[in-house]
Amino acid sequence: MTPELQQIVYLSFILMLAIFLGFELIAKVPATLHTPLMSGSNAISGITLVGALVSAGAEQTAMATWLGAAAVTLATINVVGGYLVTDRMLAMFKKKSSGGAQ
């Protein structure tokens, strides 16, 4: 086996393992903990956004700059969308004011 093929197999194994473990961990989380989990994953996406900004600004090659810009766009959408979903979920737990006379 060539070293390139070995590296592809190795990285594919790591990707499959990460997908399996991620699915198993998220499936075991109770529904009441999904909102805090979403907030934590949004913080991780913010770190991804910083890495994407560094990648886009490194000016290594044109392809790296374009991929970095795409990563910035997707990470920004992920962070903003995640916080909007978290805010909407937290709004479900707020007390509603009564409409009657006080």
TrEMBL record:
MF-aspect GO terms: NADP binding; proton-translocating NAD(P)+ transhydrogenase activity
Q: Which reaction does it catalyse?
A: NAD(+) + NADPH + H(+)(in) = NADH + NADP(+) + H(+)(out)
Domain of life the protein comes from: Bacteria
Q: Where in the cell is it found?
A: Cell inner membrane
Cited Pfam families: PNTB_4TM (PF12769)
What keyword terms does UniProt attach to this protein?
Cell inner membrane, Cell membrane, Membrane, NAD, NADP, Translocase, Transmembrane, Transmembrane helix
Q: What is this protein called?
A: proton-translocating NAD(P)(+) transhydrogenase
Membrane-protein topology: Multi-pass membrane protein
Q: What is its main location?
A: membrane
Write the Enzyme Commission number(s) for this entry: 7.1.1.1
Task: Locate the transmembrane regions by residue number.
Answer: 6-27, 39-58, 64-86
Main EC class the enzyme belongs to: translocase
The species is Simiduia agarivorans (strain DSM 21679 / JCM 13881 / BCRC 17597 / SA1)
